[in-house]
TrEMBL record:
<dbReference type="GO" id="GO:0009279">
    <property type="term" value="C:cell outer membrane"/>
</dbReference>
<dbReference type="InterPro" id="IPR000531">
    <property type="entry name" value="Beta-barrel_TonB"/>
</dbReference>
<dbReference type="InterPro" id="IPR012910">
    <property type="entry name" value="Plug_dom"/>
</dbReference>
<keyword id="KW-0472">Membrane</keyword>
<keyword id="KW-1134">Transmembrane beta strand</keyword>
<comment type="similarity">
    <text>Belongs to the TonB-dependent receptor family.</text>
</comment>
<keyword id="KW-0813">Transport</keyword>
<protein>
    <submittedName>
        <fullName>Fe(3+) dicitrate transport protein</fullName>
    </submittedName>
</protein>
<dbReference type="InterPro" id="IPR036942">
    <property type="entry name" value="Beta-barrel_TonB_sf"/>
</dbReference>
<keyword id="KW-0998">Cell outer membrane</keyword>
<feature type="domain" description="TonB-dependent receptor-like beta-barrel">
    <location>
        <begin position="256"/>
        <end position="696"/>
    </location>
</feature>
<dbReference type="Pfam" id="PF00593">
    <property type="entry name" value="TonB_dep_Rec_b-barrel"/>
</dbReference>
<dbReference type="GO" id="GO:0033214">
    <property type="term" value="P:siderophore-iron import into cell"/>
</dbReference>
<dbReference type="InterPro" id="IPR037066">
    <property type="entry name" value="Plug_dom_sf"/>
</dbReference>
<keyword id="KW-0675">Receptor</keyword>
<dbReference type="Pfam" id="PF07715">
    <property type="entry name" value="Plug"/>
</dbReference>
<dbReference type="InterPro" id="IPR039426">
    <property type="entry name" value="TonB-dep_rcpt-like"/>
</dbReference>
Length: 725
């Protein structure tokens, strides 16, 4: 749903959240209770000095998206690369930034980062199941000073459902082609004392390629305790498990031409991920105008991947078995060969007190936010390799295989931030400041199978960055906001990818510079005309040191780059225009990224000024036609379009290591996909029936070349029923 659609449903949304909205008494702004939700957007949306988008629960229920990709593909500025069927490892890019594992977009749940390690390994191998989501917030403009560390692109926050104030339960079951099935159970109860709620989620099915089946399970327990009128405790515990057979490598050109959906090593390849999380929050309503919230969070992830191909297409367009040199990867050969295991452990925790206060310090009505966060990470990276087929067992590989990598990474980060919004008649002015101070310690104990005692294999990288921001909004026309803003963006270096070693005692931890950017916006959002709403935003981002992939597991500084473009979102509701309960509507979004280029030559990395950045399509568009009937019937059909994209610079012709048969070279052609959804909840019924389909034309298309050629998802149709008790 675009920003325009969000504006249309805002009155209903505001009524639903009335107990939490900010209001005005005697001309003074009052901060009201925000216990039930943890969003990153303020209550006074009209004062937000930048572009944002909200996909609310009503929209999620009516559209029934298959995955987070379908939930966000109608959000302007977003490009999602679908390498796996259910988007288990999200690849979300905003405004031309490389979407690989969403590392340039801050992914959060209830305001807490979701990465494996937000500073040390900002890779997304998990996103909140949509069954638990109340709304999705996307923030791209000014105002990012309150959150970090990834602030070069934008933020996506999954706001989970609040605990109920009375007994409440629901059961949902879904089934579809490609052996897809799933279920969700929610049960909770509550009262004046607070509440408790349990969610259980299961999803499983076949992947895009052969033998790429997957299954995920998640349990989440959320509770709230109202100690008194001013003190509230909120707790949330989660356990998640993924077991999939998804290869992290694609196909060479010959393999792709023969059968784009094959996975020669899929029967042996695997990705296993377990995640445990805890979030505690104490909210102290000091006065009606001041609130102190203190949050503690903890996450621990174990992920172990096994694969048998390292360089796709290396044997004349066919892939080689990594541990069986010269052997072409086939289902038969893969059973008789070992491979490489990459078990990794991640643990991080943090504490963050934050004060929200409404004041008139300078004789001007204002809302201020002041906060501090202390964050710690511990990362352990290992790798085991062996050609023996017994190495397909991680236990055997640990006991008998070659221990190729042993790296410990520790991160300590301190973040300080302050922001104040001044309300000056029809104007609101929001200056903000964030300071990031971090120490990243990397200890390479073993690399390329050799013990490392070189002093340069141990490095502490200390970075301190001051990140100011300023935004302004004008509401001089009814139901219309004109906004502009600028802020400094920052993404810390990637210590997990910044290591070189060729033999014993040669390991060097290089000091890659962090990404720094200056982000500008100018935009307008309005629903001035009855039944018509739209938003348009002109954006420009300058990078001082963009970080790009060198194609072999490492990232390097690519120098200066520039991103410029325009976004548009609009919706027309004919039911509103003609005052009828039968509502036909048209909604659409469009992003034109007319500039996404390097601005400086880099001979070492093969970069030429003017080169187009990787995975930055010039055009991304979505157009939908829908009908909403008063008896509870909703239907929608739409098309999504993504224009051609470039691959990583490293794989372009002219480089010494260029291999046109690897599958990693060449453009990604444009594609158009058709999707539709229908839902029906009879009046007075507690049951909702739905059917949703994606890529209904069953178009075959290329989705990615990051690790070889990877096809996009084929036709996926599923249906189900939800029953509310």
């Amino acid at each position: 749903m675009g920003m325009a659609a969000m504006i249309l449903i805002m009155p209903a949304f505001a009524a639903e959240q009335a107990s939490q909205q900010e209001h005005t008494e005697n001309g003074e702004s009052v901060v009201a209770d925000k216990v039930n939700v943890t969003g990153i957007l303020p209550d006074r949306l009209e004062a937000v000095p930048g572009s944002f988008d909200v996909v609310d629960e009503k929209e999620l229920k009516s559209r029934q998206p298959f995955s987070v990709r379908e939930a966000l593909n109608q959000t302007p500025g977003i490009n999602i690369v679908g390498e796996d069927a259910f988007v288990l490892a999200p690849n979300i890019g905003i405004r031309g930034l490389n979407p690989r594992r969403t590392s340039r977009t801050l992914l959060m749940e209830d305001g807490v980062p979701l990465f494996l390690a937000p500073y040390g390994d900002p890779s997304a191998h998990y996103s909140t199941p949509l069954d638990r989501v109340s709304r999705i917030e996307v923030v791209k403009g000014s105002g990012q000073t309150l959150y970090g560390p990834q602030t070069v692109g934008g933020m996506i926050n999954f706001v989970t459902k609040p605990v109920p104030k009375e007994f409440q339960a629901s059961v949902m079951a879904v089934i579809g082609n490609n052996n897809f099935s799933g279920g969700h159970v929610n049960i909770g109860t509550g009262g004046d004392w607070g509440g408790v709620m349990l969610d259980a989620v299961n999803r499983k099915g076949d992947g895009i390629r052969d033998n790429h089946d997957f299954e995920i399970n998640e349990l989440t327990l959320k509770g709230q305790l109202n100690l008194d009128e001013r003190n509230t405790l909120i707790a949330k515990m989660g356990w998640y498990e993924e077991n999939s057979s998804i290869s992290e490598t694609g196909l060479g050109t010959v393999e792709y031409a023969e059968d784009k959906y094959q996975a020669p090593t899929g029967r042996q390849d695997s990705f296993n991920h377990t995640r445990k999380s805890l979030q505690l929050q104490h909210i102290f309503q000091i006065t009606d105008a001041a609130k102190l919230s203190t949050q503690f969070y903890y996450a621990q992830s174990d992920r172990a991947s096994f694969r048998q191909i390292n360089e796709p297409g290396s044997l004349g367009g066919r892939s080689e078995m990594d541990r069986c040199p010269g052997v072409v990867a086939t289902e038969t050969n893969s059973a008789a060969c070992g491979g490489r295991w990459r078990p990794r452990e991640y643990e991080y925790w943090g504490i963050e007190p934050r004060l929200d206060i409404s004041h008139n310090l300078f004789g001007i009505a204002s809302d201020a936010v002041i906060g501090f966060r202390y964050h710690k990470e511990d990362i352990q990276r290992d790798q085991y390799r062996d050609g023996n087929p017994l190495a397909q067992s991680l236990g055997w590989a640990k006991a008998n295989g070659s221990h190729r990598e042993d790296i410990a990474i520790n991160v300590e980060a301190k973040s300080y931030y302050a922001q104040n919004t001044f309300y000056l008649g029809d104007w609101s002015l929001t200056p903000g400041l964030r300071i990031e101070d971090l120490r990243i310690s990397t200890n390479v104990k073993r690399a390329e199978g050799a013990v490392q005692n070189n002093p340069e294999s141990e490095l502490t990288n200390h970075q301190s960055k001051v990140l100011p921001g300023l935004g302004v909004a004008w509401n001089g026309i009814a139901n219309t906001t004109l906004f502009a803003g600028v802020h400094k963006g920052f993404a810390p270096p990637r210590p997990d990818r910044d290591i070189e070693a060729s033999a014993a005692n040669t390991a060097v931890v290089s000091k890659t510079k962090p990404e720094e950017s200056t982000n500008w916006e100018l935009g307008l959002r309005s629903n001035y005309f009855k039944g018509i709403a739209f938003e348009t935003t002109l954006f420009h981002t300058d990078f001082d040191e963009i970080v790009v992939s060198n194609g072999f597991g490492r990232f390097v500084n690519g120098g200066k780059s520039q991103h410029s473009g325009i976004e548009f979102a609009g919706r027309v509701d004919f039911g509103t225009i003609y005052d009828t309960s039968h509502n036909f509507y048209i909604s659409g979004t469009y992003t034109n990224l007319f500039t996404a280029k390097f601005k400086k030559d880099s001979a070492a990395e093969g970069i030429h000024s003017g080169d187009r950045l990787a995975y930055a399509p010039k055009h991304v568009a979505s157009l939908n036609f829908g009908y909403e009937h008063p008896v509870g019937f909703n239907a929608r059909i739409g098309v999504d379009y993504v224009s051609a994209q470039s691959e990583d610079v490293i794989f372009r012709a002219g480089r010494a290591d260029y291999d046109p048969l690897s599958g990693m070279s060449g453009q990604i052609p444009s594609y158009t996909l058709v999707n539709a959804s229908v839902s029906y909840r009879p009046i007075g019924s507690k049951a909702t029936f739905f059917v949703s389909g994606h890529n209904l034309g069953d178009k075959e298309y290329l989705a990615s070349r990051v690790d070889g050629m990877a096809a996009g998802r084929q036709r996926q149709v599923f249906g189900g029923v939800r029953y509310d008790f």
